[in-house]
Design a protein that fits this description.
single chain, alpha/beta, Rossmann fold, Methionyl-tRNA Fmet Formyltransferase, Chain A, domain 2, 2 domains, seven-stranded mixed beta sheet, 8 helices, 16 strands, elongated
Length: 298
């Protein structure tokens, strides 16, 4: 099948690889422009661009939907595959391929429509999530679903670990649908709708006046990026791993055992990443401060 692929981050790469392995003709790979990883570094390819170049595919960096429309004209694309592309596609692009565009969405639609479904699933305490192959339409994640697969969410799951699992599950699901599209007719979404808007860095600032159980979910939802965080004496410290403890610590205080006092229970800071330093255990960080306890900034 002649395919146009639309994707940008690492989690889109397994699907691109799977399409090539399955023998499809990926005629073009649309991705976002090069970006700097660091302020002083040179711009680098997106993960999808790097993977596509390694496969010898035609890579097109785009900044607007109009560029895509121009390129797709008269290309006889049978279907478009979209995985975390990062650009809104116009109705004319959606209607251009014979089978339209199939989008891989990382939730069990209609739960968690939007840009951050995995993070919101963790924050809500969901015990399962999944991935859907959705027929793309103009509305935000409103299209009919051709196939879905379920993935459990446990007490150790992070956004990173779930993306690793879901990207592999989704790649297999997409190739199954494309192998026999007639066996996966699009079905309207049914069930309660919930929304997963984009989460920003400030959404992951830890408030000790919340219960430890809620903060622990925030830590997992923010791992690996952008990271849940506190500031101590104006210095930011990311909390990379934590669990709920049962000791008694004053509200907003981190004791020498790296236990943070919260509104309900304590949060044990297992792994932290102080600003300008490497990741380390919470206890090692506190020991380096040479103090019995610290108060987080409010």
């Amino acid at each position: 099948m002649r395919i146009a692929f639309f994707g940008t981050p690492e989690l889109a790469v397994p699907t691109l690889d799977a399409l090539v392995v399955a023998g499809h003709e990926v005629s073009s790979v649309f991705t976002r422009p090069k970006q700097r990883r660091h302020r002083r570094g040179d711009p680098v390819d997106t993960p999808v661009a790097s993977a596509a170049n390694g496969l010898g595919l035609n890579v097109i960096e785009v900044t607007s939907a109009q560029e895509i429309e121009t390129f797709l004209a008269d290309k006889n694309i049978e279907v478009g595959v979209v995985v975390a592309f990062g650009l809104i596609l116009t109705p004319s692009i959606i209607a251009s391929p014979r089978l339209g565009l199939l989008n891989l969405h990382f939730s069990l639609l209609p739960r968690w429509r939007g840009a951050s479904p995995v993070q919101h699933a963790i924050l809500a305490g969901d015990t399962e999530t999944g991935v859907c192959v959705m027929q793309l339409e103009e509305g935000l994640d409103t299209g009919p679903v051709r196939a879905k697969a379920v993935c459990p969410v446990d007490r150790q799951s992070t956004t990173g670990s779930l993306f690793d699992s879901l990207s592999q599950i989704g790649a297999r699901l997409m190739t199954e649908v494309l192998a026999a599209p007639e066996e996966f007719p699009p079905e309207p979404q049914s069930g309660e709708i919930s929304w997963a808007p984009t989460l920003k860095v400030d959404d992951f600032r830890i408030d000790a006046q919340r219960p430890a159980k809620e903060i622990e979910k925030m830590v997992r939802a923010g791992n690996p990026q952008p990271g849940a965080w506190v500031t101590v004496s104006g210095n930011r410290v990311k909390i990379e791993k934590a669990h709920v403890g049962d000791t008694q610590v004053d509200l907003g205080v981190i004791d020498k055992h790296a236990h943070l006092g919260t509104a309900s229970g304590t949060l044990v800071l297992d792994v932290v990443h102080p600003q300008g330093r490497k990741s380390m255990s919470g206890v090692a960080w506190l020991a380096g401060l040479r103090t019995e306890k610290v108060q987080i900034d409010t």
